[in-house]
Each structure stands twice: as structure tokens, then as C-alpha cells.
Write a structure and sequence with these properties.
Two copies of one chain form a homodimer.
Chain A: H1 6-11, H2 14-33, H3 40-49, E1 55-56, H4 57-64, H5 68-80, E2 84-88, E3 96-100, H6 102-122, H7 128-144
Antiparallel strand pairs in A: 1-3, 2-3
The structure holds a DNA duplex (23 and 23 nucleotides).
Amino acid sequence: MSDVKGAAALRATLVFNLGTLGALAADRFAGRVEALGLKPKHAGLLAALDGGSAASQQELATRLGVAPSLIVALADQLQELGAVERVRDPEDRRRQVLTLTAEGRRLLDRCAEAAEAADAELTAGLTTAQRTALTRGLRTLGDRQVPH
Amino acid sequence: MSDVKGAAALRATLVFNLGTLGALAADRFAGRVEALGLKPKHAGLLAALDGGSAASQQELATRLGVAPSLIVALADQLQELGAVERVRDPEDRRRQVLTLTAEGRRLLDRCAEAAEAADAELTAGLTTAQRTALTRGLRTLGDRQVPH
DNA sequence: TATTGTTATACTCTATAACTATA
DNA sequence: TATAGTTATAGAGTATAACAATA
């Protein structure tokens, strides 16, 4: 029993390639946003705040899949950059509602530019068709996860 | 100047989706191989040793893009599991040549199975065509990186 | 008593630097 | 002197647990 699969079988899997390329992509993105004083997680939080209705920190923690204490730290740093505001919910004074400021939206736009630049670098050897097919595939895959 | 892009533009990028899905995929894979006493990096090292000609630890460090001291730790643990052997190169007694044992190949096969199971879970909502297209896209993207 | 946010603490991962042995 | 491997140490990132305020 127990098929012999070896390295070739592992390299053929989606998770293996997603894992290695994901780490690479995260590094490239991190390198570009650090000039803004941000880490990838800050960008993720800014993105979660944009468009979405004003959210409490607990909601954001579960939405991003991180510990609430991490949201506190990220929000502290974003607040120091003037990117977010904390407002106590008058209906429930335990809740801190985070909202993007104009500066926060500006930073988010810079993050998007950084990501686009990293995309261009990463996909330099690919055709436009390959690139868009890949992006769409990843988005549909991502949309299937956490489909609450 | 300075286009307004917002969260939608960020979410449309490859690096953003690769980063988030890569972290998710790595977690799922880690959850499955930890029963084998392994972390994803161990699997990466095992895969690097399979097929490839016997490699020194320095070569492996640069190949995997990690510090040499990390290879030492990973190899220590794999050796303890009986998965690799360290043999001093008689030509240059400073070099430790790592080779897979039969147990190492067995563990590598188990890692491949774990990755395939994680794939199935992750792509549950996708058609076969979507899944193979995505896997191929990622492999071609991965092959373009570090094309030394 | 339960929940939100916060703080304090600890743990995991990994790199850098110092060291040993061989060259 | 330079290089392969190892060991010691330190830093980043993040979670867990204890705590305060509010419900």
C-alpha cells in the first residue's frame, strides 16, 4: 500500500504553490508598503474598513481572523498615522467604532498602488491572459472561503 | 492627481489574494502535517532533498531562501525522526551532505497526501476545470520566480 | 454574569552574530 | 584567511490570559 508520490506530487498541489508563492508575494508587498510605515496587516485592516459599514474591533478581529489584541495594536498604529479614528458607540459604550479618515483612504490608495506594482514585478514573464486568468481564479477561490 | 482606488483595487491584485490565500493554505497544510511531527518548512526541505542531487546545507539554505542556521534546526529534527542522514563529504570535510532515508521518502509521501487532502478541502466549491487551471497558473508563476 | 477593549505576558519563528572545524 | 556548519542570542509577530469598563 501507500503510494509513492515524492516531491513531484507535493509540488503539483495547490496548497504547496499557494504557500510558497503567498510568502513571496507577502514579502514583496511588505517591502513596498513599509515606506508608508505600514505592514501588510495594516493594509488588510484599512481594506476591511473601506466600504464596509463602521465596525467594532471585535468584528474586525473575527473578519480578519486575528486576535482582538492584535486589532488594538494595529488600530493604535493607524491612529498614530492619522489613518483611522476611534469613536465610542453611544448605543453601547464598550464598543470602539473604527472609521477611515481622509488620510486613511489616501494610505489605502497607496497600498493598492504598491500591490499593483508588486503584481507587475511578479508577473513580468506572463502574458496578460495568463495574468488575468490567474487573478480571477484566485478571487473566486478566495470568495469561496469563509462564505458566511 | 493620485487616483482614488480604495479597497476594491487592492482586492483586485494578485499579491493581495496570494498573500491572504497563501496564509490560509499554509495553515491548513500545517494542521495536517503536524500529526507527522512536521511543519511546512520540514516538508519543503524533504521536497528539496528528493530527486535533487545530494546537497550541502548551505546550498539548501540558499535554495529555500532561509538562513543556514534554520537548515541546521530543521535537519536536526528530521534526523531525529529518521527522515534524513547527515554524511560528511570526504572531499571537503566541512560539508554535511543531507540525504533522504526510506523513512524520509515515506514522510514526504504523507506530506503529499496531506497537501492533496487540503487541496480538496480548499477547492470544494470549484469545478475540476477551475481547479486545474488555477494549479497550472500557479505553477507557471512559480517557475518564473528565481529563474537562475 | 457576559462582553468589549486593553494590557501584560509568553510563545513561535527566524535571522544575526559569534564560534569551531576544516580548507 | 575564508568557508561550512553549529550554537547563542535577539527580534518580529502574534496569541493567550488577566484586567477594566460597560452592559
